[in-house]
Each structure stands twice: as structure tokens, then as C-alpha cells.
Amino acid sequence: MRCACPFCGDFMPQAQNQARCVCPHCGYVCAACISRDTPLDLDTIRQMAEDKVFEPAEPPDLTGES
Fold it and tell me: Residue 19 has what pLDDT?
């Protein structure tokens, strides 16, 4: 799957050996499309739930305002 960052529009490639995509421009992390058409076992889902990388984060401020 190829996704554009919802905040800056840049292409978000999948991080190597990780179940997430990362925007190279603003650093936004997304895992919305992970496991599409590939069922995950219960232990893997539990590990992903505990992984801090999947916690929601505030979107980056791209306006330059403080």
C-alpha cells in the first residue's frame, strides 16, 4: 500500500522490518494499513498493543507558529 501523509502530503514508505510507515518530511507514524489481508495471531496483536510506537501522538506543527 502506498500512502500520503495526512499532514504534509509526502509519500510515507514502510519502515524496514517494522509494522509501520513513517513520513520522511514531518515524522508522522502510521500503522493503519498493517496486516491488511494478512491475519495476525493473538500474541502478535498483544505485543503491538504494548509497543509505544503505536500510541497516538500529536500531529507536528507545520505552520512554524509557537
Answer: 76
- β-strand partners of 30: 21
Angle, CA 13 vertex, CA 10 and CA 16 arms, to 5°: 150
Cβ-contact 6, 37 below 8 angstroms: no
Give me the pLDDT at residue 66, please. Answer: 57
The DSSP code sequence of 38-51 is SPPPHHHHHHHHH-
pTM: 0.48
Question: pLDDT by residue (tens digit) across 34-62?
Answer: 655 566 678 877 887 787 766 666 776 77
Q: How far is CA 65 from CA 8, 19, 52, 58, 62, in A?
A: 16, 32, 27, 15, 8
Q: Cα–Cα distance between 12 and 20 in angstroms, integer?
A: 9
